[in-house]
Design a protein that fits this description.
Order of helices and strands: HEEHEHEHEHHEHEHEEEHEHEEE
Largest sheet: 9 strands, mixed
Number of helices: 10
Strand content: 15-25%
Structural class: alpha/beta
Distance between the termini: 34 Å
Number of strands: 14
Helix content: 10-25%
Shape: elongated
Strand order of the largest sheet: 10-9-8-7-11-6-12-14-13
Oligomer: single chain
């Protein structure tokens, strides 16, 4: 198999530039393609000029390659296609993209990430068999990061989980009297709506449901697909008739224990765990419903159960320039009793959001531990 290292200059500058544009295009599909991946594609003509570009815009719609090829038309013949994910090799709601590239006369296909889906993989082999030059692995890490939710769902069989919280500089998410509105700035709160718009589901626990009566729908983002609103209400006592999450602004799922008594609509019954409900069972139920990415917005207790279950893939913390000195910390009991058991993170980004600092981190992989 040809890789980026097989090309002169180890992924020529033109390859990198075209693939970086494809990665940026793919990101436009976040929040609207589930249960499919986000994919971007750029087509260059035989002389290296961009003649087509596209991304997978919605599940069931044309794939990125099809959009880009339609835009390129006859100029695609003899040209190159840059795709963030290996072109698919199967017929689902749309035809195989590998075949579409062949029929368009594409001479060279460069892709970033191999397709781990056993039903769709093999596109690269099909292309090579038709005489198309294939190069793999260009900007693989960037494309992996942009498609982390779908890749996690295929590889692990559960949704990707992003835990978001807002805290003071001393790590408090509320004051001693329970007040928490507002620790973070309006700018940070607007940014959270972007995270919601990119997720398939938003999850809170019973404590948040009782205290805040949250709405959990996306606001202020035009064209956003509303995520599934999920409340983990083990005893079925926190969500009452008239709760804001029960309106028709977005779909809602209430997760309760198998033996809980409730007449509320939209309920899923799950097995109990040592604390609350089984996190693996909850994620499995969401995965069955087509959820591939989850925004965990619950309080410290719910976050602790997810961390304890090893089910946090990314952390986004909004730190406000405020100190309280008392009040609940961002994370409650996560089953960590000694420093050697700590969940260690690699910080991938720090950004000023209004007066706040947004820190993004991912769990440290074993080969990076020191």
């Amino acid at each position: 198999m040809a890789t980026a290292a097989d090309t002169p200059g180890t992924a020529a500058a033109a390859d990198i530039a075209a693939m970086r544009r494809a990665v940026a295009l793919a990101a436009r599909g976040l929040g609207s393609t589930s249960p499919n991946p986000v994919v971007g594609c750029v087509v260059l003509d035989a002389s290296g000029h961009e003649v087509g570009a596209g991304w997978h815009e919605r599940a069931g719609g044309p794939h990125a390659e099809v959009h880009a090829l339609r835009q390129a038309g006859v100029l695609a013949r003899g040209g190159s296609a840059y795709v963030t994910l290996e072109p698919c090799n199967h017929t689902g709601r749309t035809g195989p993209c590998a075949q579409a590239l062949i029929e368009a006369g594409i001479a060279r296909v460069v892709y970033a990430v191999g397709d781990p889906n056993p039903q769709a993989t093999g596109g690269a082999d099909t292309l090579r068999a038709a005489g198309v030059e294939v190069v793999a692995g260009v900007l693989e890490a960037e494309a992996e990061a942009g498609n982390a939710a779908w890749l996690t769902s295929v590889r692990l069989g559960r949704p990707y989980v992003l835990w978001k919280y807002a805290a003071t500089l001393d790590g408090r998410v509320a004051a001693q009297d329970g007040t928490s509105r507002w620790i973070s700035s309006p700018e940070s709160r607007a940014d959270v709506h972007r995270l919601r718009a990119e997720a398939d589901a938003v999850i809170v626990g019973s404590g948040t449901a009782r205290t805040d009566d949250p709405h959990l729908a996306v606001r202020g983002i035009e064209g956003a697909v509303q995520p599934l609103r999920v409340v983990v209400d083990t005893e079925a006592t926190a969500v009452r008739p008239g709760a804001r999450v029960l309106d028709d602004a977005a779909p809602t799922l209430i997760a309760v224990a198998e033996d809980a008594e409730t007449d509320l609509p939209g309920v899923v019954r799950l097995p109990r765990a040592d604390r609350g409900l089984s996190v693996p069972a909850l994620l499995a139920a969401l995965h069955e419903r087509g959820v591939r990415s989850v925004l965990l917005e619950g309080g410290p207790a719910l976050a602790g159960t997810f961390v304890a279950a090893g089910a946090v893939d990314k952390v986004v913390g909004y730190l406000a320039p405020v100190v309280l000195g008392a009040g609940p910390a961002a994370l409650a009991d996560a089953g960590i009793t000694t420093l050697t058991e700590a969940l260690r993170l690699d910080i991938t980004e720090t950004v000023r959001i209004g007066p706040d600092l947004r820190i993004t981190a991912v769990p440290t992989t074993p080969d990076k531990e020191r």
